[in-house]
Design brief:
It contains six helices and four strands. By secondary structure, the chain is an alpha+beta fold. The chain is elongated, with a radius of gyration of 33 Å.
Length: 164
């Protein structure tokens, strides 16, 4: 019986103490979220939003745009890796490499940086260097021109791959 009475009293004390804590918290919240504090909070949030949008736009517009250059085999063979990147679009859009043999591709593009050969595919890869990209706000992409050969050793397709 005494234990029961003690338990009820203890629970009652804890409940009233908890009620006081909740009341104190409520009073603090009302203080922190008074009208002037709400205005300051809204102003800070607006400023943070403007700063975030400005940083995003700066990084997005900062990236370098690359002017495409018409593909010329001699220029490709003598130019730097980064200059080759400027010619890749014309090379792919013009479908210059399609249905060419390995020897013809080697005359047009030179020796590949890598050759991938397995049971399912046979590809030559040409490094086109690192370029900044709008999609990659912080890090540049390493671009690779892939030339995929069919079983009869003729080019099936050529495409660009970007590696982070």
């Amino acid at each position: 019986m005494r234990l029961r009475l003690f338990t009820k009293t203890f629970v009652h004390i804890l409940a009233s103490f908890g009620h006081r804590i909740r009341a104190a918290r409520y009073m603090k919240l009302n203080y922190y979220f008074s009208t002037t504090h709400k205005r300051k909070l809204v102003l800070v949030l607006i400023l943070l939003t403007i700063i975030s949008i400005s940083i995003f736009l700066y990084l997005r517009l900062k990236h370098k745009t690359y002017e495409q250059v018409p593909f010329e085999s001699q220029k490709w063979l003598t130019s730097s890796i980064e200059d080759r990147f400027l010619m890749y679009r014309d090379l792919l859009d013009g479908r210059i490499l399609i249905d060419k043999t390995e020897n013809e591709i080697e005359k047009i593009l030179g020796k590949p940086n890598y050759i991938w050969k397995d049971e399912q595919s046979y590809e030559w890869e040409y490094n086109l260097g690192y370029q900044e990209s709008a999609a990659s706000l912080m890090f540049p992409y390493n671009n690779w021109l892939h030339v995929l050969f069919q079983e009869d050793k003729k080019v099936e397709k050529a495409y660009l791959i970007n590696h982070d």
